[in-house]
């Protein structure tokens, strides 16, 4: 599952098939068919796109697609879950809501498609204020990380 977050809220979930390696070609497909159109629709022109330094995000092919699309890119280090709002807060909220919805399903009736629908429903149920509170804490997390010289945060 892939998703995005902004001051306007969460972008809907995007599903990558199980076992698919997120190489440059796959990531470019996700960018072109989900992340960039969804971000543009939600935020309008001039938004700043953040991604980490994963190899598929930083490849020459990916960077060419972003540049050709005129995307304003905020560079970000790889493996920085303490600074990724989805990682440090929102995925756990989303997961808790999915688990709650799954428990309400009849035993044995949960298909893959229904499970995906519940994931989308759970994401849509996360209130805008929860997202904004998470994003507001981001500046504090940056300062804590800077003060800790990049070591993992214990917040």
Description:
The structure is a single chain. The protein has six helices and four strands, in the order ββαβααβααα. It is mainly alpha-helical and 155 residues long. 10% of the residues are buried. The radius of gyration is 17 Å and the shape is globular. Helix content is 55%, strand content 6%. The model has no long low-confidence stretch (mean pLDDT 87). A two-stranded antiparallel ribbon has the order 1-2. Strands 3-4 form a two-stranded parallel ribbon. A hairpin with a 2-residue loop joins strand 1 and strand 2. It starts with a strand and ends in an 8-residue tail after the last helix.
What features would you highlight for this structure?
mainly alpha, two-stranded antiparallel sheet, two-stranded parallel ribbon, globular
Oligomer: single chain
Going across the biggest sheet, name each strand in turn.
1-2
Q: What order do the SSEs take from the amino end to the carboxyl end, as H and E?
A: EEHEHHEHHH
Average pLDDT: 87
Rg calc: 17 Å
Alpha-beta classification? mainly alpha
**Helical amount:** 40-55%
CA-to-CA gap between the ends?
A: 26 Å
Beta-strand segment tally: 4
């Amino acid at each position: 599952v892939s998703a995005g977050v902004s001051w306007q809220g969460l972008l809907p979930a995007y599903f990558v098939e199980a076992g698919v390696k997120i190489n440059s070609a796959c990531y470019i497909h996700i960018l072109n068919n989900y992340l960039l159109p969804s971000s543009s629709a939600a935020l309008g022109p001039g938004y700043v796109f953040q991604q980490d330094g994963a190899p598929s995000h930083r490849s020459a092919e990916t960077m060419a697609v972003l540049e050709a699309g005129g995307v304003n890119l905020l560079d970000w280090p790889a493996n920085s879950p303490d600074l990724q709002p989805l990682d440090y807060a929102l995925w756990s909220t989303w997961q808790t809501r999915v688990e709650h919805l799954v428990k309400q399903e009849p035993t044995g009736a949960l298909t893959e498609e229904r499970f995906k629908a519940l994931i989308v429903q759970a994401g849509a149920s996360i209130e805008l204020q929860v997202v904004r509170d998470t994003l507001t804490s981001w500046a504090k997390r940056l300062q804590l990380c800077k003060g800790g010289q990049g070591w993992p945060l214990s917040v």
